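Hi there,

I know you've been waiting on this one. I reran it after we fixed the sequence typo, so this is the corrected version. Both the input and the resulting structure follow.
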Amino acid sequence: MLGGVNNQLFFQSLAGFAVMLVLIGLLKWAFARGNSVVTRPLRVGDDEEYGLLRVVARPGNHIEGEMLRQKLAANGIKATLTQTKRGPRVMVFEKEVKAAEAILRS
């Protein structure tokens, strides 16, 4: 008791306000635009829109591309198979382009 008065109702209402503030914050975060936890749909770009990756092969389909990617991986080169606007492409980092092209020619 504070000052001889029973303050239980006062403290319960403060706790209720605190819970409401937490719920309001949680709902604002969950429904905020632009900060979604769900991934955006992938956007297909041109060959030049993939940053540090460079095209080393232009397979006819994804099966051929995966075979080429696995051939590079077996020789220790990290490669990526991706879909571009002009079809599937096998890409590697710039420093490994010459080695990858040599492996794919052999």
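Quick highlight: The radius of gyration is 28 Å.

Best,
R. S.
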